[in-house]
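Something for you to look into today, if you have time. Could you write out one complete protein record for me, on any chain you like? The space below this message is yours for that.
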Amino acid sequence: MPASLARASFRQDPNGTPMPSAFPRGGFYFEALDPMGHLRVMEVQGARGLRLEASGLSIRLPEPAGSVLVTVWGYAVRAVAYGGAGDPVAEEQSAATAQDAWLHLTAPGIERVELTEGGGEGMLVEIVAPTGC
């Protein structure tokens, strides 16, 4: 049976939409690393996404996966993938540019991704991971 893809995107949310500090979407579970964080959908230079708090964002996958594709926008966003034991298993960082960047994390058993840095100006646009593998 072929695998399918879990996808969570913030491209269509209205600009300025406030989000709770923890919430599910598209099978993923999003949580601000600072529980007092204020997540918000923002539009900057025509790009729209979930603005990253200075403390960062944790994203739990629907199920363990061997790869995750994260689309971010601007300002050196760092993505770290974690396996079931809580150890980092893959890492990528975008360039500090005002455009979309695709971070492809690959490792067996990725369960969670953390996005940090971005100077409070980075955004998560979309995350995609295979399911049913």
In short: The mean pLDDT is 91. The domain at 4-131 is CATH 2.60.120.200 (Jelly Rolls).
